[in-house]
Amino acid sequence: MCKLFIGADPALWQSTTRSVRIVGQVTSVRLEDFFWDVLSDIAKRDGLTLGQILTRFYNESIEEGHDLDNFASFLRVCCARFLALQLTGDIPQSPQSSIRALDAESILVRERKRNSSRKAKTQNSFAQNKIVSL
Fold this sequence. Notes:
CATH superfamily of the largest domain: protein bp1543
Order of helices and strands: HEEHHHH
Number of helices: 5
CATH class of the largest domain: Mainly Alpha
Low-confidence stretches: none
Number of domains: 2
Structural class: mainly alpha
Strand content: 5-15%
CATH architecture of the largest domain: Orthogonal Bundle
Helix content: 55-70%
Shape: globular
Largest sheet: 2 strands, antiparallel
Number of strands: 2
Mean pLDDT: 90
């Protein structure tokens, strides 16, 4: 099972630090190259540069009241969700499909339903395993 993951190109988890300007301040963000590639793909869908998409993510998150003490972790989760939403069909896999044009509210509702269903199944399974173990 692990061979599938261990056999991957080590360059995927090599980290790169990039300097970006967000809200007029230069800061450094360190991510694995895999995540930089995904962020670049996200940006290209709406004709943005990597710097522009990072600034948008930051600004819009702050506007929503999110605390971004760990911006790199936030960006990794954005990448994971982007890929997961492609698997569910909520985000088209075609790189020509703009993310801006998607109905974000409907996608978020479907994602929340899937997540709550998954959590319920996990909790139920955990409870059953605990009973059997006793």
